[in-house]
Structure formats: structure tokens, C-alpha cells
Amino acid sequence: MMRLFGKYYTDLFLNKRLFIGLGLCVSLFVFSFFLSFLGDLPYFFLGALVLLVFIDLFLLYRHEKGVFLRRDVPERLSNGDDNEIKIYLENFYPFEVKVGIIDEIPFQFQKRDLWFSTTLASKTQKSITYALRPTKRGEYDFGQTRLYVQSPLRFISRRFNVGVRKLVPVYPSFLKLRQYELMAISNRLTDFGIKKMRRIGHSMEFDQVKNYVAGDDYRTVNWKATARKGDLMVNSYTDEKAQHVYCVIDKSRAMKMPFEGLSLLDYAINASLILSSVALVKEDKAGLITVAEKTGSIIQADRRPAQLNKIMEVLYKEKTRYLETDMEALYISIRATLKQRSLVVFFTNFESMSALERQLPHLKRISKFHLLLVVFFENTTLKTLSEEPAKDIEGIYIKTIAEKFAFEKKLMVKELAKHGILSLLTEPQNLTVNVVNQYLALKAQQRI
After folding, report:
1. Quick one: signal sequence residues (predicted)?
2. Would you say 258 and 283 are in contact if contact means Cβ atoms under 8 Å apart?
3. 116 Cβ contact list (under 8 Å, min separation 6)
4. What is the pLDDT of residues 234-260, one digit of tens each?
5. Largest CA distance in the chain
6. Which strand (E) or helix (H) includes residue 236?
7. Is the dihedral of CA 148, 152, 153, 154 positive or negative?
8. What one-character DSSP code corresponds to residue 10?
9. Residue 306 reports pLDDT greater than 50
């Protein structure tokens, strides 16, 4: 009996309306000492309140499963994106209920006020949708969903604890990956800000002979086919295929800097995944190398359907390290792994010219054998400080230092170009678009 009572007691909560009623009862009893005409009114009021509470208890507990709830969480979440979570509700009570929902989301989101309130008519269903944006890869622990139900009397609430603990992995940004894949297949990458590159000349891979349309290069006119058919015909060429594209990701402490909740490493991982996807759609071969104080994961370039999943599984586990990058180890790994000339996209970060100068000899050695593209990041905070007007002496000092660091970033681009190394200086939020643009530009220029 006590166990049964404890079961219901732990899920029983008193509402504000009950406390207001009890407060009125106390007030009536106090006033009845001074106002004799109140008589037995306080006792009738208290009796009515107790009766209503018992009726409320009967209404809520007469059905074992009065409300059905199901939380739909994806099998995996996409890092840095808004992931949709759905809560499905169905009311089996013969009356309208008011429900409040507390969803026990993972502690990584640091949300303590996730409360949903709604009403649900009898025998009806309703869905509640909200979004979660994770900023770290790894496993996220979802707890139970707490459902608080009130009858039309609303003196008490009954709690339903729904669901069990569920661990959901957070992978690199695969939601944007799907969007880019669809855009690349349909040649609508410009919808993401990716430029359509003008082709310089044409590749040597012949595709077909087709009718001339306005805008075709007159140098591709096929005069023999034109003479045979009587209409102007041109040769059509396709991009060079099966080129090797390697993303090399620096995992050292330089990539730990945060921006809008994500580290630079996470931005690099998301961009690498999407670049690999676009390269595979363009029928090139995609590979991956990670490096810190020693060489990490290596995935040989391939274009099989399972290649992208293999890259994603490796990137899911990568974390920043606290030591500097061993460029000698990276050079040895590249020489041992890359058997033909490839596009090597190196995601790293330099905060000073001295940091670049330490790595420059190794970058020059890599660029002798491969087309090297060094991608590093603008410090957006310093850029904002350098653009704001100074209000005092301290502001002038801060502005000058910020401009100095911003100018050094531009000097790094020129220093790399002086040694024949391609570079891309970009803001973190524009990294993916700029990297894919650069890849398409290099293909259009037939440099890979």
C-alpha cells in the first residue's frame, strides 16, 4: 500500500490554483474570529476545495496512460547545424488537458529553461518541434522527457516520465553536405555563393559533338561535322576526372581557437567533408590526412561510394592537440602516401609571420611535388577592432595592434605567393564556400 501511494505521490505536483484556494480558506478562518456573520462559510469553502482536489485526482489518475508522448531524435546530429527534434503528443483523456513538457537534453547545450506548454483536446494529436545546434563532436546523452498534465480544474498536475537514456553521436556537418551534393549534381552550387568559373581553354577529354548555341567557344567548331550536317557543330569537352584531392587538417593548438561556438578545427573538418563530397561528385578521388605533433589518420584517395562515409567516421573522432605541428612528419607522410601529383588542401592557422616562417621550408618542399593550397583564417575579432573608431588613448593602442596583426595576415598571403604556394585567407563562416570556389577555379584552369 505504501509502495503504491509512493508511486503516485512522487508524480503528484500542487499547482498555483490550489495554493490560492488554501490562502482564501486561511483568510476566511482568520476573519471568522472577528466577523461572526461568516459562520460556517470557511468550513464549507474548505470542504468544497477538498472535494474539488479529490475530483481532480480522480480525473487524472483514473487512466493509467492518459497521455502518449514520443520524442523523435535523429540517429546522429550534424555539428554546427540546426537539428530538428520532434515531440509527438496524443491525449486519451475524455477531456481537454493542459500539458507542460521538460525535455532532458544533453548538458553540452547548457539550456536550463527548455519548457513547452500547450493544450490538447480529447482524442487529438499534436507535434512540437524545436532545434538543437551542437558545437562539439562526440556523444550526447538525452535523458527522459517529463510531461506534466493538468485537468480542466488545474489544482494538481500529474507527471509522466517518458523514454529512456539515449546516446546520440554528433558527426561533422552532414546536413550541409547533403545540400552541397544535390547542388553539385544539379549544377546549382551558385545558390550557396559558389561562383561559376570561366573555363580557360578546355580539357583534353572529348565528350561529344553537339549543335552550336550562343556562348559556345568558336574555337571548338567542328568544321567537318558542320559540312556534313549543314548546321554549325561544336566539340564538347568534359573536366579532367580521377584527379587526387587530399584534405590535410592541422590538429595542433593553433586550431583550438573558438568562433561562434565552433573551434577552427570543426570548421576545417566541416569544409573538408563538403570539399571531399563535391570532389567525388565531380568524379575526382578524395583523400584525407590529419596531423599534429605526429601524423594522425591517413585515408588513401578513392572515389568509391563508401569513401565519404570512411572520411566521416575518421573526422568524427578527431580532436585538437596541445603541441605544434610536426611538418617534417607531414612531409614524409605525403611523400609516402601520394604517388602522383595531387591537390593538397592544407587547413591550418598562422597568427604571426614567425609562425609561418617556421613552416615555410616544409611547405616549399611539398609544393615541389604537388599543387599545395594553404587555407588559414582571419581573426574576425581583431578585424572588428581595427575597423572601430578609437575613443581614447587605450583605444588607439588596441586599434593599432589589431591593424598590425591584420596586416601581417595579408603579408603571409604575399609571402606564400612569392614562393609559388597558393593560399586562401578566409573568415571561418565563409570557409566552405571559399574552399569549394578555389577547387572549382583550379579545375577550370586545368591546374589539376
Report:
1. none
2. no
3. 87, 100, 101, 103, 128, 130
4. 877 655 567 899 999 999 988 988 888
5. 119
6. strand 233-238
7. positive
8. T
9. yes
